[in-house]
């Protein structure tokens, strides 16, 4: 009987502590949430696309690893993104390699985020900050994106001596193929703070892309648009709190412990 009473008291205490912690997190003021969110986060996001290829729909996942740094300036929470590595998975027999030189060259402008509370959880919306890569634009957001592979604004941003940025593909052919592209990265996301301090939510993507050329040159690869899948659950984002000394090398070594296993397209 005494053991039963003892275990009941322990269980009651544990439930009280859990409830109190949950209540305290939900009772944070806007300013307290902002203070709690400041720091460096390991960044993991997936954008799920559908692309028409001939008569088929190809499902593609672009998985990006990097960092999101949050700081407070003038009573605003400012998000700064930097990227380390990207992977592309396809429902078709394609193996695509996105060089890190391309990924690290995507440097979005820092931006204030919109703080919000939903279903008892604090979070924020990070707005779009269009970012060109492989093309020089005076107005990153509004200048018309090139449609001509000979457009003089196209640039060799990964500095490999080839136009735009280079993506390597091995598909049905027995030999590898290079395609040269330019992109305007246009993404936004919603995230909400979890009990463990992670920020989780979904990504919205409206990026633009043009294929400038390819090697071998005789391959004519069409500029089929990538359209994001309408199901937001297929395009998640997870921000995991990490120490300030994390860099890309450490992030990629620890990605299996930091992030979930990648889904299939």
Question: Strand-residue fraction?
Answer: 35-45%
**Bulk shape:** globular
Largest pleated sheet: 10 strands, antiparallel
Low-confidence segments: 1-24
Note the total helix count. Answer: 5
Distance between the termini: 56 Å
- Average pLDDT: 88
Helices and strands in order:
Elements: H1 2-26, H2 30-37, E1 39-53, E2 56-73, E3 76-90, E4 95-97, H3 100-104, E5 111-112, E6 114-118, E7 121-126, E8 131-133, E9 165-170, E10 177-185, E11 187-193, E12 199-205, E13 208-215, E14 227-228, E15 236-242, H4 248-253, H5 255-258
Description:
The protein has 265 residues and is of the alpha+beta class. It contains 5 helices and 15 strands. The strands form 2 sheets. Strands 1, 2, 3, 5, 6, 7, 11, 12, 14 and 15 form a 10-stranded antiparallel β-sheet that branches. Strands 4, 8, 9, 10 and 13 form a 5-stranded antiparallel β-sheet that branches. The radius of gyration is 22 Å and the shape is globular. The protein starts with a helix and ends in a 7-residue tail after the last helix. The model is unreliable at 1-24 (pLDDT under 50).
Brief account:
The chain is of the alpha+beta class.
Which short descriptors sum up this protein?
single chain, 265 residues, alpha+beta, 2 domains, ten-stranded antiparallel sheet, five-stranded antiparallel sheet, 5 helices, 18% helix, 43% strand, globular
């Amino acid at each position: 009987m005494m053991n039963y009473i003892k275990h009941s008291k322990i269980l009651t205490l544990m439930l009280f502590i859990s409830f109190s912690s949950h209540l305290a997190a939900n009772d944070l003021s806007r300013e307290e949430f902002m203070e709690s969110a400041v720091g460096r986060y390991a960044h993991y996001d997936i954008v799920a696309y559908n692309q028409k290829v001939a008569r088929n729909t190809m499902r593609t996942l672009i998985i990006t690893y990097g960092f999101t740094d949050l700081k407070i300036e003038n009573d605003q929470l400012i998000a700064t993104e930097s990227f380390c590595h990207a992977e592309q998975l396809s429902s078709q027999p394609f193996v695509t390699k996105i060089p890190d030189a391309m990924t690290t060259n995507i440097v979005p402008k820092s931006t204030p985020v919109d703080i919000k509370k939903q279903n008892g959880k604090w979070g924020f919306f990070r707005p779009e900050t269009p970012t060109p890569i492989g093309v020089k634009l005076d107005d990153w957001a509004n200048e018309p994106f090139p449609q001509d592979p000979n457009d003089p604004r196209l640039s060799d941003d990964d500095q490999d001596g080839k136009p735009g940025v280079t993506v390597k593909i091995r598909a049905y052919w027995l030999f590898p193929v290079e395609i040269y592209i330019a992109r305007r990265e246009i993404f936004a996301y919603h995230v909400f703070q979890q009990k463990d301090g992670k920020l989780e939510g979904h990504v919205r993507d409206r990026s633009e892309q043009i294929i400038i050329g390819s090697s071998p040159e005789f391959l004519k690869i069409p500029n089929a648009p990538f359209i994001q899948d309408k199901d937001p659950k297929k395009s998640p984002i997870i921000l995991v709190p990490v120490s300030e000394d994390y860099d890309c090398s450490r992030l990629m070594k620890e990605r299996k412990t930091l992030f979930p296993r990648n889904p299939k397209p």
